Amino acid sequence: METDRIFDEYYEKSLIQGGNLCCPGCGGPLFWRMALEALGPKTIVFGDGPCAMCAIRFLRVPTFGFHFSFVADGATGISAALEMKGRDDITVVSSGGDGAVGDISFNKVSAAAERNENLIQICVDNEAYMNTGIQKSGLTPFGAWTTTTPLGKESPKKNLPFIIAQHGVPYVATVSISHPADLKGKLRRAKEIRGFKYIHFVSPCPTGWRFHPSKTVEVARLSVETWIWPLYEIVDGTLRLTSKPKPKPVEEYLKLQGRFRNLSPDVIKLIQSNIDGKRERLLENDGERIVF
Q: Which of 72, 112, 164, 228 is the most buried (most CB within 10 A)?
C-alpha cells in the first residue's frame, strides 16, 4: 500500500526508531524526533534514567546510559576526547530528567556550566520522579499532587533555566513540542555555538499528570499560551522572548490535569497572580541583558 511505503521511507531516514517503551502519550519521543531532525546524525547522546532511556535507547545515533548522579560527567569526557582528536563535527548532548538535572546531579551540571564545557545539556522535565513512583522533585510546580505531596506541593518550581544562565554560559533556551519550529531553531542555534548550551523542555506526562494520552500536545500548547511555560532564549546574557501569546487563564491548563484537581478557587487565583507577575517581568526584560 502507498501508506506503508511512505511510512517505510520515513522511518528509514528518521534518527529515532518507530515504537518505544515510553507510556502512551509521553512527550519525550516527540521531543527526540524533533531534536534529532535539528541536530542531525553526527550526534552523541549521553542520557539518564528509565523514563528518559525509554526513548533514548531507540535513537539511531550513538547513545550512552548512566545513573542519575552522573549527568554531564560522561558527556564532558566525550567532548574532551573529541577535542583531543580534533573532531569538531560531532555534537555532544547530555540529557537528564528534572530529578537528575535539577536535584541529584545539579552540582555536576553546574560545574560543567561553570567550566563552559562544549556540549548541549538538555533537561527533559516531566516535573516529578515519574519512573520511581511519581514523587515530587525540585521542579514539580506549586500545588501539584504527587505521591509525596498528596495535598499539593507547597513550594514553587525551581527556575532552572535562569539559574543556569547565571553561570554566564553562552546559550540557554526553553522549548515545547507544541512549537516545533521554535524547538528545532533553538537546537540548531545551540549546535553552532561553542561552549555550554542549556535546553529545557517540559515533557507532558499523562501517567503522572493524570490526563488522557491524546491530550499531550494540547497540554503542552496550553502551558505556553497561559505563560506557565514561557518560551525564550538567553543569548550571552540577553533575554529574548520567542513567543508572546495573548494569555489564556491558567485554569484552562490546570483543569486538564488530575494532579491539580484538589486546588481551591483561591489557590488557582494565587497561581494566576504569580504567573501574571512573572509574565510582566519577562516582557519588561525582553531584549535586555539580565546576566552580569
A: 72
Contact 60, 43 (CB under 8 A): no
Contacts of residue 112, defined as CB under 8 A and 6 or more positions apart, other chains included, come to 72, 73, 75, 76, 94, 119, 121, 196
Spatial neighbors of 148 by CB under 8 A, at least 6 apart, are: 135, 136
Which residues are registered as beta bridge partners of 202? 125
> pLDDT (tens digit, 9 = 90+) per residue, 84-126?
999 999 999 999 999 999 999 999 999 999 999 999 999 999 9
Give every CB contact of residue 284 below 8 A, 6+ residues apart in sequence: none
**In this structure, are residues 72 and 119 in contact, taking their beta carbons and an 8 Å threshold?**
yes
Q: Which three cell numbers stand for residue 153?
A: 506541593
CB atoms within 10 A of CB 85: 9
The 10s digit of each residue's pLDDT in 159-218 is 999 999 999 999 999 999 999 999 999 999 999 999 999 999 999 999 999 999 999 999
Q: Distance between CA 97 and CA 119 in Å, rounded?
A: 17
- Give the cell for residue 150: 498528596
Residue 256 burial (CB count, 10 A): 17
Cα gap 164→128, rounded to integer Å = 20
Question: Which of 123, 182, 180 lies closest to 157, judged by CA?
Answer: 123
Beta bridge partners of 173: 199, 233
